[in-house]
Amino acid sequence: MQVLFPEQVPVRRAELVERYRRHFLELDTTGMPLFPGVTQGLTQLTQQGYLLAIATGKARRGLDRILDETGMRHLFVSSRCADEAFSKPHPQMLEDILDQTGVEAGRTLMVGDTVYDMEMARSAKVAGLAVSYGVHARERLLGCGALACLDSFPEVCAWVK
């Protein structure tokens, strides 16, 4: 809200944040469908022994809502949200996840759809793999050091294997 409404005093911006949260978390009944192949792919990756975690710009309440609606919570060993750490591209979310799981940065892969994801991965010394079906364009993602930019989640799973 600070970027969107810089002319507003902090108290007013805080009100706007609360109003946004109320509409998104309480009043919005729009479903949160997953991209094709995500459920099967994540399930297969966990069955193959991969540890899955989430580093998201969403607030904890928003992530919890999605995990509950999709029934995917059990697939993730850790998660870190924007209201629990510095926002992307700061590396804290990934660093916290690495600390919690005990996994080394060199054995970790960040899959993301924004340049902020790729910059966060680079700052945390984690490999970054981009997907083209999200927010930022392929050229921007590859320009931020992504190992590759894939067009579907089944492609991500095949690449990981």
Characterization of the model:
By secondary structure, this protein is of the alpha/beta class. It folds into two domains: 30 residues; 123 residues, Rossmann fold, CATH 3.40.50. Helices cover 45% and strands 14% of the residues. The protein contains seven helices and five strands; from the N terminus they run ααβαβαβαβαβα. A three-stranded parallel beta sheet has the order 3-4-5. A two-stranded parallel ribbon has the order 1-2. The protein is globular, with a radius of gyration of 17 Å. The N and C termini lie far apart (40 Å).
- As laid out across the biggest beta sheet, the strand order is 3-4-5
Shape call:
globular
Number of strands: 5
Strand content: 5-15%
Helix fraction by DSSP (H/I, runs of at least 4): 40-55%
Q: CATH H level of the largest domain: which superfamily? A: HAD superfamily/HAD-like
Could you give a quick summary of the protein structure above?
With 161 residues, this protein is α/β, with parallel strands linked by helices. The protein has helices at residues 10-27, 38-47, 60-70, 92-101, 115-123, 138-143, 153-160; strands spanning 52-56, 76-81, 109-112, 127-131, 149-150. It is globular and about 50 Å long.
